[in-house]
């Protein structure tokens, strides 16, 4: 498991804002590096409840109704923003092309405050959305404002979490911070399986699925003694009904499928798993764990809301590795902290 202990105070003097904050995945990762949140925005009242309970900050509501000048200045802007079609995508009008979308709010806040770094996340297919025009408009908009943008798709399964979750991560750096390239973290490929994070059976009885149309193929169930040879991905071993969405059964010796805020079927939002010879959904605490949230993370909402919230959240391990890369990029770190270059001896993990 990666060790971030050397980085826990690396960003102590750095401030950030948390837009489209959800339950605070970015907040949790930034907090682990010592950064200070000066503003958060989240419109969903249930997510606000979870955010307040865990981070002690009441997120403001709809970001589209908040003026940029009412937001404190900050060093880093964090945002896991929704993917939307741009009204005139591909017209190469930059900033104007983003009007009517939620990215426009990121752009207008950025234009007003000019933070040093933007740290953003979106769905895997964002780069191909609208035949690539969406990403082109985002890049052109940020270049027009004064930023260089780097993007890369990373999978939580490759960073020590037992969940197949591919997302695109975007780092935009203000142009006066002279760097030629931003290097995203290399996968760690830590051997990990879902079984390592599941709760005891007595705490998961309510999530057991009992149906007559379930089929398990014993030949597909992995041999536990060969765990370290398993691929870092979900291992399908069975089917419910016709095997549609939410009707596929996976082994506890593999990874979880991508948690989702939506979806139907008996395994809606979490997937179905054969755990200790029972087929069931994942409990909210297990969903928290496969996203990298610690067990002291409070879940103050109903199961239905919790499944939605963790399905909408971001994998903490991936965020932390990207933050480590930011700290390891001396030019960025110097501008962020206005300190001497980060001590190379502290770079080891």
Question: Percent of residues in helical segments?
Answer: 10-25%
Rg is: 21 Å
Question: For the record, what is the CATH homologous superfamily label of the largest domain?
Answer: Vaccinia Virus protein VP39
Q: Identify the CATH class of the largest domain.
A: Alpha Beta
> Could you name the ranges where pLDDT drops below 50 across 5 or more consecutive residues?
340-349
Provide the CATH topology of the largest domain. Rossmann fold
Shape: globular
Largest sheet: 6 strands, mixed
Structural class determined from secondary elements: alpha/beta
Mean pLDDT: 90
Annotation field: number of helices? 8
Element layout with pairings:
Elements: E1 15-19, H1 25-32, E2 36-40, H2 45-55, E3 76-79, H3 103-113, E4 117-123, H4 133-145, E5 147-155, E6 166-174, E7 214-216, E8 236-240, E9 248-251, E10 272-275, E11 278-280, H5 284-290, H6 303-312, H7 316-328, H8 330-337
Parallel strand pairs: 1-2, 1-3, 3-4, 9-10
Antiparallel strand pairs: 4-6, 5-6, 7-8, 8-9, 10-11
Helix pairs in contact: 1-7, 3-4
